[in-house]
Write a structure and sequence with these properties.
single chain; Aminopeptidase; OB fold (Dihydrolipoamide Acetyltransferase, E2P); four-stranded antiparallel β-sheet; 7 helices; binds zinc ion; AstE_AspA_cat; hydrolase activity, acting on ester bonds; metal ion binding; hydrolase
């Protein structure tokens, strides 16, 4: 029998409710045979699809972590049909530190899903999620927020993938989640993010940004739970409670490079727009000030496109190249349906 460096005592194929850990070998001075213990739960009952619910890929994004720990404590396995895998603190060292990246290796879990997995704790976690968890899944919901440096308007997100049938099924799931903003991107992500691993494994990839600024927001937590439970209902895994049933108005949005505004120089960032505000191309977005050079006038920041303000940098002092704003452009449902029709 071979010994793996990442394993779980949870039986992925057994019925019922199991709560345990995924263990990642981590040999250090104070613990030669030590492990990192990632909390992991499996709920399985009857036949139905398998979904992976994941949060804590970034340790300073809290709404998803809370929604999933609450789900682990309260979900009655006899009510489900299918299998729910739950990873509420995916990069556990980052979660414990309340940081975006792991203090063990500076690893950013959601940038660790490239063509090869790094031989680091974070890389090994990404490899296990891809080869052991996603390989068993039909659907993957990965919960994010803006983290410590960004405030993010609550929205759901979907990678529509590269073929029409998967795109149509993914878009139907995104619509069912019924977040206030529904953000769909066509194709396979180019960066080494979890969505790329999912699209390549032909697993439906859904995600969302729920809050940010390194704090917990109750309104955003509500949107995260709404997305989780409406998705489980849509997949016929778990009937949703009455409180999630009423549809709300959703706007369909997309993203392109001109929606991002980066700091042209260092300074103290003074934003003038608010989250959710609709802005025009050329509109004054904010200033960068340099109190260390008081005679220098502040530098004006202007939007390059029209759109809804989805992201605002939440930290004052900024360096050249920091993302200060991200907009989302509005699109119509019919345009997305038409675009999917033209896919192979
Ligand atoms: Zn994140």
């Amino acid at each position: 029998m071979s010994l793996s460096t990442v394993w779980t005592e949870v039986d992925l194929e057994a019925p019922g409710r199991q709560v345990g850990f995924i263990r990642v070998e981590h040999s250090v001075h104070r613990s030669a045979y030590g492990t990192i213990a990632l909390p992991f739960a499996v709920f399985a009952n009857g036949s139905g699809p398998t979904i992976l619910l994941m949060a804590g890929s970034h340790g300073d994004e809290y709404e998803g972590q809370l929604a999933l720990t609450r789900l682990i404590r309260t979900l009655d396995v006899s009510r489900i049909r299918g299998r729910i895998l739950v990873l509420p603190a995916a990069n556990q060292p980052a979660v414990k530190a309340g940081r975006r990246t792991s203090p063990l290796d500076n690893g950013n879990l959601n940038r660790s899903f490239g063509d090869r997995f790094a031989d680091t704790p974070t890389g090994q976690i990404a490899a296990f999620i891809t080869e052991e968890l996603l390989a068993r899944c039909d659907v993957f919901l990965d919960l994010h927020s803006g983290g410590s440096s960004l405030d993010h308007i609550p929205c759901s997100y979907a990678d529509l993938g590269t073929d029409r049938s998967m795109a149509q099924r993914t878009f139907a799931a995104l619509e069912a989640m019924n977040a206030p903003l529904s953000w769909a991107q066509a194709g396979c992500p180019e960066g080494p993010v979890a969505g790329r691993a999912a699209v390549r494994k032909r697993v439906m990839h859904l995600s969302g940004e729920f809050g940010g600024g390194g704090r917990l927001d109750h309104g955003a937590l509500d949107v995260a739970e709404r997305c989780i439970y409406r998705l489980l209902d849509h997949l016929d895994i778990l009937e949703m409670e009455e409180k999630w049933r009423a549809d709300i108005r959703t706007r369909f949005v997309f993203n392109s490079q001109e929606h991002f505004i980066y700091a042209p120089q260092e300074g103290v960032f003074e934003p003038l727009a608010r989250l959710g505000e609709t802005v025009e191309a050329g509109q004054l977005a904010g200033y960068l000030h340099r109190p260390e050079l008081p005679m220098d006038p502040p530098v004006e920041i202007r939007f390059k496109a029209e759109g809804t303000v989805a992201v605002i940098r939440s930290m004052g002092r900024s360096e050249q190249g920091d993302c200060l704003f991200q907009l989302l452009g509005e699109t119509r449902r019919e345009e997305i349906l038409e675009m999917m029709e033209s896919m192979p």
